[in-house]
Amino acid sequence: MKNIFIKAMAGLLLTASATACGDKFLDTKIYNGIDIDTGLNSVSNVGNALNGCYNRLFRYYFAGNYATMIGDIGSDLSYWNTNTSHFNEINTFTYQPTSTYLTYIWDYGYKVVDNSSRVIKACNQLSENATASEKEELDLYKAEALSLRAYASLVMTNIFGHQIKVAGQDFSNELGIVVVDEPVQAYADVERSSVGACYTAIVKDLTDAIALYDAVGDRQDLFVFGKAAAYGLLARTYTYMENWSAARQAAADAIAESGITTLTYSPAAYKALYNGGASNSESIFALAITSSTNWSANSCGTLFSSYGYTPTPYLLSLYGENDCRRSIINVTVDDAGVPTYGAGKFGAYAYGNPAYATNYLINAPEMFLIQAEAYLNEGNIAEAQKALFVVAHRNPDIAAATDLPSDAAGLKSFLQDERARELFQEGHRLWDLRRWNKTTGLSATEYPAVKWLIQPTQLGDFVYPIPDAEINAGFGVVQNPNWASVRPQ
Question: Is residue 289 within 8 Å of residue 357, measured between CB atoms?
């Protein structure tokens, strides 16, 4: 396999302007270079275009901040100290369809989806007359593009569509997003697919990608999609679908492919996971954010430090006194009682600047937690305890799997809390609360008290609105009809 390292900010960039009234559904012109509709006519051009797909994923408008952090900021885990206005409408559930955050997530999510679709199409066309080595290279590009499309599609379906399963109840027929199998032609009408159809497309993209990785290998690079990351994303997808046996197997495959069979348990070693860059030995896929290539004031590290977000007192209460994860829970409180965070997982401790921290998007601890949840739902308490212990042992007071609850209800409650403890700042909590339909308070207030502006509520029917800019474009995307009535308040 030719070793071609992709940096997120390098190469030929694909771009699309924000959809507005009168624009086509997607504007897919090249930003700087050959036209995307005619210019993907060589292996090198396709490789450069793939760089552009990573760039769009990497941007703070999408996985680099907004599309990831919305899952934690709009939950019971993030406290906003009100010193700045960043993400306040998401934290307080006062957003409208004109929300800048939602508009950029939609816009950049579809940049990834559509641009990846064009790379996939070009790979198929060029493979017909390619040499053996060129075909191998194209198959790798295609596998990564399929993975990227699946990642963006899953994120957007979560945000703009109903949860596919809520505590066992099926919502597959609810509206999801626009599934893009083929690049969308200019000014073509489109329509939203069902949530079930979205998940079918995501699973197909990931299984097709895995088959290609099986054939040609992957780059073995934390900062590009590979086989382990595709399995990890598939495990997450099957978890949302409550396909427990498939989720458990995909998580096991992700662990096996990554070689991450154990985790870190000392405070110093745990903190070192978040030194920055490739320091996280428990991560399977991350963004290539560095001290020289980062989002500065728009970074997640800034959001969880000078922009005023901290763990809620509720989350802090969940950690045991000796839990090694406390090594990065660095909350300070000023004389007025206003809390500030030292960025936690975005501390970039090797640099001392939270803006340099990267986003670890698919990680081994999540895979062990998925295995535990799957075993629990299959009725296998002993195996659920074993898988859960791998993560729960971050608290050394839990010295053996048998220290965990032995009844299904108790173990389920512990697992839900463990996902909060372990996955904070990775963007999962809102979707967990929704799929469990768990009663919770939202929009924390009056630090350090455990109090909420939005009193205990359930999120099983919660969905964000489609951005007005897309609806007003008039190319067939319809609004979620009930978004306002299901908004917590």
Answer: yes
Q: Which residue has the tokens 């978040």?
A: 274
The secondary structure of residue 165, as a DSSP letter, is E
Residues 341 and 79: their CA atoms lie apart, in Å, by 10
**Residue-averaged pLDDT of the chain:** 92
**DSSP assignment letter at 465:** P
174 three-state secondary structure? coil
- One-letter amino acid at 266 equals S
Of 290, 271, 267, 291, nearest to 281 by C-alpha is 271
Distance CA 44, CA 256 (A): 32
Say which amino acid occupies 311: P
Taking a C-beta distance cutoff of 8 angstroms, is the pair 470, 106 a contact?
A: yes
Distance, C-alpha 197 to centroid of its chain? 20
Label residue 23 by pLDDT band (50, 70, 90): very low
Residue 299: count other Cβ atoms within 10 Å of its Cβ: 26
Model confidence over 378-406: pLDDT tens digits? 999 999 999 999 999 999 999 999 999 99
Query: What pLDDT does residue 188 have?
Result: 85
